[in-house]
Design a protein that fits this description.
By secondary structure, the chain is of the alpha+beta class. 23% of the residues lie in helices and 33% in strands. The radius of gyration is 18 Å and the shape is globular. The two termini are 29 Å apart.
Length: 258
């Protein structure tokens, strides 16, 4: 597998349908970090930061994201939010659907989503999503959102701790096309983020529904059955003590026997 193509601003722009400013780096610490450093670019026109390699790629819950040169897609979209925007969870959920649909269209594969926002193929993680808010210090309102996406495209040399849980798309796809497709999908969903139509698309691809899960709450590991996704992207679970809904941030979910 060659995954020959290095990304460039020109080849991304060639495939983008939406109006987006693009910054492309050969190597950078983290495209999310760069987006957060460049809040001067916050405007109604979204900004895309892409790199062929990240030296300090970041994941959720303080983890790192393995980002070797050229074998993955590492991108962050910086979007300006209006004063009504409050729910970063919905955007994270919607982004997982946008990535899954782009991969379905381009690669003819059927990725699944592990709640909250990891994209899986054949029970291994091929993509992680890290959304971060940009907050106005004076008003304490969210003025922007960074949507960071890392897709393993042809990576094979995962470090030992990832070998059993991570995988790649495994096709020699054009990263610029994938990057543009994911970006366009997100821009289109973001325009109507309040209509929640992506929730059904999320459910159709959700690999945890009907399964037993373990989750950690306040440091204690508990088991439950995942039964639904609510309209805000929360995971509805059935526990010994009744039905409850988990929201992101406070818990981690693992399929039993993971
Ligand atoms: C996770 O799996 O926990 C989320 C991983 C998110 C990785 C992407 S790669 C592009 C962007 N830059 C980062 O440093 N992280 C996100």
């Amino acid at each position: 597998m060659s995954t020959k193509n290095k990304l460039s601003k020109e080849n991304i722009l060639q495939h983008l349908k939406s109006d987006i400013n693009v910054f492309c780096f050969d190597t950078i610490d983290s495209t999310n970090n760069e987006a957060k450093r460049r809040t001067d670019t916050l405007s109604p026109t979204p900004t895309l930061f892409v790199a062929n390699h990240q030296s300090a790629g970041r994941g959720r819950l303080g983890r790192s994201f393995y980002s070797p040169d050229s074998t993955g897609l590492y991108m962050s979209l910086l979007l300006q939010t209006n004063s009504k925007f409050s729910n970063i969870v919905t955007l994270t959920t919607a982004t997982a659907v946008c990535v899954a649909k782009a991969l379905e269209d381009l690669c003819n594969i059927q990725p699944q989503i592990k709640w909250v926002n990891d994209v899986y193929l054949h029970d291994k993680k091929i993509c992680g999503i890290l959304c971060e808010a940009i907050t106005d210090e004076n008003t304490c309102t969210i003025e922007g959102i960074v949507i960071g996406i890392g897709v393993n495209i042809s990576t094979t040399d995962f470090p030992d701790e990832l070998k059993t849980i991570a995988a790649s798309v495994g096709q020699d796809i054009d990263k610029a096309v994938l990057c543009a497709k994911i970006s366009d999908n997100i821009i289109n969903v973001f325009k109507n983020i309040e209509d929640k139509s992506y929730i059904d698309e999320y459910k159709n691809r959700c690999m945890v529904l009907g399964k037993e899960i373990t989750y950690t709450e306040n440091g204690i590991s508990k088991t439950a059955t995942a039964i639904d996704i609510d309209k805000n992207g929360g995971l509805v679970i059935k526990t010994e003590s009744g039905v409850k809904t988990l929201s992101t941030g406070e818990i981690t979910v693992r399929l039993k026997n993971d």
